[in-house]
Write a structure and sequence with these properties.
This protein starts with a helix and ends in a 9-residue tail after the last helix. Mean pLDDT is 86; it is low at 5-18 and 226-230. By secondary structure, the chain is mainly alpha-helical. Helices cover 81% and strands 0% of the residues. The chain has one domain.
Length: 230
């Protein structure tokens, strides 16, 4: 009888451990959402208050240490957001149902594509400003139709995904409803206000997004996951 019990425990434990590890991974995603939001807020505050766009112009500002730090923080934020979305969704997966699942797929895909643009801000745009400064004097989408097509795919998918994900989060009611409302509002604010680099209007929408992510991560840590191992 004792040998039978020990054998059953050995057979069960390989199934239990991955479930425990997955739960820890999802829970840590709430921390990732908080750090992602904070990094985004700091990055946009630096863009607005520290990076000397008015004094040097957009091209020369790319070469400043403040610009390097701000763009690096944005890249760090977007990469962490992939993990953060898993943490936020994991605690409301049952409550959001099928609609919530599809909104998660859309926003996760959009975020993954947006990582490429954040990477370009850190490594490509400064290089382009150095070797072809005339290309940076106008809209960046005029540099190449391929670049225009890429930005036309990633940014709308990211924005639509955040709006839909925010709507699913609002209807689920797992998190305080003001947080997903802030998430939703941040997108039209970013789209419709003046996008001139270094201005308050260019920064405020993404700052609101960062605050929403911090709030969702914070409240996610205070709630148990909506899925449990059987």
């Amino acid at each position: 009888m004792t040998q039978q019990t020990q054998q059953q425990r050995r057979e069960v434990s390989p199934e239990v451990l991955p479930s425990d590890g997955l739960s820890r991974f999802v829970r840590a995603g709430a921390w990732a959402a908080m750090v992602s939001g904070l990094a985004l807020v700091v990055s946009l505050l630096m863009e607005w208050l520290v990076v000397p766009y008015e004094r040097l112009g957009q091209t020369e500002a790319y070469f400043t240490n403040a610009s390097h730090v701000a763009s690096g923080l944005r890249l760090f934020s977007i990469v962490l957001l992939l993990w953060g979305l898993i943490g936020i969704y994991g605690r409301q997966s049952r409550a959001t149902g099928t609609f919530g699942l599809w909104t998660f797929v859309v926003v996760f895909s959009g975020t993954a594509l947006t990582v490429g643009n954040a990477w370009a801000e850190v490594f490509v745009w400064p290089t382009l400003a150095q070797v072809a400064p005339n290309a940076m004097t106008g809209p960046i989408t005029e540099v190449s139709p391929y670049l225009s097509a890429g930005l036309g795919l990633s940014f709308p998918l990211f924005g639509i995904g955040l709006i839909l994900f925010g709507a699913a989060t609002f209807w689920a009611g797992v998190y305080p409803r003001w947080a997903p409302v802030l998430l939703i509002v941040s997108i039209p604010v970013t789209i419709f206000l003046d996008p001139t680099a270094g201005t308050f209007q260019e920064s405020i929408g993404q700052i609101l997004l960062g605050i929403a992510l911090v709030a969702l991560g914070f409240y996610g840590l205070r709630r148990a996951p909506s899925t449990t191992s059987s």
